[in-house]
Design brief:
The complex is a heterodimer. By secondary structure, chain A is mostly helical. Chain A has 11 helices and 2 strands; from the N terminus they run H-H-H-H-E-E-H-H-H-H-H-H-H. By secondary structure, chain B is α/β, with parallel strands linked by helices. The chains are: A mainly alpha, B alpha/beta.
Chain lengths: 303, 447
């Protein structure tokens, strides 16, 4: 395989990995603080994409500038979801939480379909036709922007979690909810904040995904959500560095492994397509990680 | 006072007569209030099987609106003459909820509770494959206007004799598309790049891992064989339904050096294939597209990346074939817009025709007897309506009861006013609007 093509594929993998990371970190944050597995997290991505679409359509400004607005909007929606849906059932059993989040999937999908139909929505980035050439390699500017955006988000997120009182309070709640409450931390407020932040990160993922050329429809969240779950399980439940490593690994593996497999069987004289095996590869990695290290790469026992 | 036995008997008899008279009188009065059974049947009940909710609800709603428009037009003209009695058409919704289970539930309800006379619709081959079993068991005529798999009328595990396929199949799309490529695209490529006439055209295929995608791929192979086309499939890559990242598959296809790429994909997938293929992978080739993507959302989504790509079609939101049906199509689009405020889609167009086909079949049968309506459908021959049909008539083939469409090819040309591409019909010559253009940026496969 040509080296230029390989580098190009690695960049696509990094871009896909960035979207997974943003989604998975939000999911991980909610799980870490609230110990709730939000199966409707993909629908927050979908709502984020719709928020970005409508703000862009109504304002017409550079779509990258509206990501912040979409994040704020989804953060507010996240607060409402936490207060109205999850808080009343917290502590009543895991099954209730699971079925509630499954119900939210259908609620959001049908609500969006009712409000805006199932028509596809798209945003054309102003940099859609712009590429950065490095030698013979052409890298679309949008992907480079998305990778840089994600790096900035991650640095800001880490600073928030490590250097601010609120961030430390969230980490304390994540480590031991009862002890955090005894130390005077308002744990319910931390729940609300984690859901707002998680939703905002999902909005960033959805908005950036749409700007990069993807299509929004009410059902777009399902597949990214499955990938985000794979990412947090591979990385370790509750682990932010784990989500980053696993997100990048998954994004790159999905793009590179089918080509390697195709080349490998080609050497054996067999012509076979592996490009439809992307999801299989993701879950194959998941199984291997779970067999070798059941808590995930960065996971801790008991989580 | 003494009463004779005979008098008592007589009184009893009179009493009995009185009761009998009263019963007869009440019966007569009730009978006068209730219509006789024959008079009850004064409407043609048509069940519309469509995804009115769920993932394909936009298409389902369009099918419903088109069917309503057709029924209203027929009813406004006095209904359908059924054996001398004018009957209006009553449409009943059968929502498949875009799922197989929902389809079975909807068809069962339409047949057993609503007692429909015919069924129309059936979007998605997978769903129709499941729900047609119920229609087959009850022997209800079903005019299928939205499922593309030829298997629907060819399967042997159920009695398919009541099914009539009024939309092109996955065998039809590639046949028309590849004939166009062979007749128009190939000569232009070979002329510009001085390729030898005995060099086969190199075809890359990217198809959905589903009945639909595999059907198109099989159709491509069949068409090449049937017409002995000098084409070589240099790569055939599969992808999972609803996939969003085609870059790896497109890279593999690019490495096989195709002259033309034929994706068998749904709208969202096709948009991403063309965009990623040109923008990310740099594969500057002619992309072909299956008819289901001839939709306003596709033109908006694909943007400038779709310029000069080819769209196979039979009913377009933006193009109207020149020729005899031009005015009728314009009128239909105008009527639809006036009635619903939006534009009709391809599935809506065939469903609209489906109602007219049903009305004609019932009229010819002169009865609502399902067996006779089925026979009438089998013998039906009526003029084309808003889609161009082969030989200008709607008729079902005697073997698999498929109507045959005259499919056409459009090329997407940039429209500055719309800020999007718009399709222009480039084939066949009889209805074309303009000539095919091989863009300057086009790059062929290996010499």
């Amino acid at each position: 395989m040509d080296l230029g093509v390989l580098i190009q594929i690695l960049v696509w993998g990094l871009y896909a990995g960035c979207i997974y990371i943003l989604l998975a970190i939000g999911l991980n944050l909610i799980f870490g603080v609230m110990k709730v597995v939000n199966f409707a997290h993909g629908e927050l991505l979908m709502l984020g994409a719709y928020a970005a679409f409508w703000i862009y359509t109504l304002s017409g400004v550079n779509p990258y500038l509206i990501i912040a607005l979409a994040m704020i909007l989804l953060g507010i929606i996240g607060v409402f979801i936490e207060r109205l849906c999850f808080r009343p059932i917290m502590g009543t059993g895991k099954l209730n939480e699971i079925f509630l989040s499954l119900g939210l999937i259908y609620l959001f999908q049908n609500l969006v379909a009712l409000l805006w139909t199932t028509d596809s929505r798209s945003i054309h980035s102003p940099y859609s036709g712009v590429s950065v050439s490095i030698g013979s390699i052409r890298l679309p500017l949008d992907y480079i922007i998305i990778i840089l955006f994600t790096i900035v988000f991650l640095i800001a997120f880490q600073l928030f979690m490590k250097r601010t009182t609120l961030g430390r309070a969230m980490r304390a709640t994540s480590q031991n909810r009862d002890a955090a409450a005894l130390m005077g931390i308002h744990v319910e407020r931390m729940d609300m904040l984690s859901f707002a932040l998680g939703s905002a990160l999902a909005a960033a993922a959805g908005g950036l995904w749409l700007i990069s050329g993807q299509i929004a429809d009410p059902y777009m969240g399902s597949i990214p959500a499955i990938k985000a779950f794979a990412v947090i399980i591979i990385g370790g439940l509750g682990s932010i560095p784990g989500a980053i490593v696993a997100g990048l690994t998954l994004g790159i593996a999905e793009n590179v492994v089918p080509l390697f497999m195709q080349s490998f069987v080609g050497l054996l004289g067999v012509s076979m397509s592996f490009t439809a095996w992307k999801d299989t590869i993701a879950f194959f990695i998941l199984i291997i990680v779970l067999v070798i290290r059941p808590t995930g790469i960065f996971g801790e026992k008991g989580e | 006072m003494t009463i004779k036995i005979s008098e008592v008997f007589g009184m009893i008899m009179n009493k009995k007569k009185g009761i009998l008279f009263a019963v007869l009188l009440i019966s007569a009065l009730i009978a006068g209030c209730v219509q006789p059974p024959e008079a009850e049947v004064k409407e043609i009940k048509i069940g519309l099987v469509a995804p009115l909710t769920g993932g394909a609800s936009t298409t389902g709603t369009d099918m419903w609106q088109s069917a309503v428009l057709a029924a209203e037009q027929i009813n406004a003209k006095g209904g359908v003459d059924v054996g001398g009695v004018d009957m209006p058409i009553t449409l009943i919704k059968g929502d498949t909820e875009t799922s197989r289970e929902g389809g079975v539930k909807a068809v069962t309800k339409l047949i057993t509770e609503d007692k429909v006379d015919l069924l129309i619709g059936g979007f998605s081959s997978g769903i129709t494959y499941a729900d047609q079993v119920v229609a087959s068991e009850h022997k209800v005529p079903f005019i299928i206007t939205g499922a593309s798999s030829p298997v629907i009328t060819r399967r042997t595990d159920i009695d398919t004799s009541y099914f009539f396929h009024h939309c092109p199949t996955t065998d039809d799309y590639p046949e028309a598309t590849l004939l166009f490529v062979n007749d128009v695209v190939k000569p232009r490529i070979y002329e510009r790049f001085n390729f030898s006439a005995d060099r086969p055209l190199r075809l890359g295929v990217l198809y959905q891992d589903s009945k639909y995608g595999e059907g198109v791929y099989e159709g491509i192979k069949k068409a090449i064989e049937k017409h002995n086309l000098d084409m070589e499939i240099v790569s055939a890559e599969k992808f999972k339904m609803s996939e969003t990242d085609f870059r790896t598959a497109l890279t593999v296809i690019k490495e096989s050096k195709p002259d033309v790429v034929y994706p068998a994909a749904f709208l969202n997938e096709q948009t991403l294939i063309v965009t990623q293929g040109r923008k990310d992978v740099g594969m500057n080739t002619i992309y072909l597209s299956v008819e289901c993507n001839d939709d306003p959302d596709y033109y908006t989504g694909v943007g400038r990346w779709g310029e000069y790509s080819i769209q196979e079609s039979r009913f377009s939101p933006y193009a109207i074939p020149s020729g005899p049906i031009h005015e009728v199509v314009e009128k239909f689009k105008e009527d639809f817009k006036n009635r619903w405020g939006t534009s009709p889609s391809m599935m809506g167009a065939s469903t609209y025709e489906g109602v007219y086909v049903a009305a004609e079949a019932v009229k010819n049968a002169g009865t609502l007897d399902k067996k006779k309506v089925r026979a009438s459908l089998a013998e039906l021959e009526m003029p084309q309506i808003i889609e161009v049909m082969q030989k200008g008539v709607i008729a079902f083939s005697p073997d698999y009861r498929e109507s045959k469409f005259e499919l056409y090819m459009e090329q997407l040309i940039w429209n500055e006013t719309a800020g999007e591409t718009r399709p222009k019909i480039v084939w066949p010559d009889s209805i074309k609007e303009t000539d095919f253009v091989l863009p300057d940026w086009y790059e062929p496969g290996s010499p």
